[in-house]
Amino acid sequence: MERYQQTCPNKAKRLERKIEYVILPYLAVCYAVFYTDNTTLGYAATTTDFNIREDLNLTGTDYNWLSSLSYFGFLIWAFPTNLLMQRLLIGD
């Protein structure tokens, strides 16, 4: 038995469409929200209009930990959701 089975062109085309129309837009929205969230946090810390450091009484490395929380959350969230997208039949 071969390790990889040959697929018919129709199934391959259907898989390509599924990736292009279902999975990629979902990932693009998720990454855009993640990027916007981190950009907003950096903007809030550096501008005088939204001086988050003074408003929340952040001293020393408190702000660094605050900004790292979004990356930790992303790492915890990203792997399970990507695995679920591989296992579940999305779009069927």
Describe, in plain words, how this protein is organized in 3D.
The protein has helices spanning 9-46, 52-55, 62-87. By secondary structure, the protein is mainly α. The protein starts with 8 loop residues before the first helix and ends in a 5-residue tail after the last helix. The model has no long low-confidence stretch (mean pLDDT 79).
Main features:
0% strand, mainly alpha, 74% helix
Beta percentage is under 5%
Number of helices: 3
End-to-end Cα distance: 29 Å
Oligomer type: single chain
Average of per-residue pLDDT values: 79
Task: Give the C-alpha Rg.
Answer: 20 Å
The largest sheet, given as strand count, sense and whether it forms a barrel, is: none
Structural class: mainly alpha
Number-wise, the strands total 0
The secondary-structure element order is: HHH
Give the low-confidence spans: none
Shape: elongated
Percentage of residues in helical conformation: over 70%
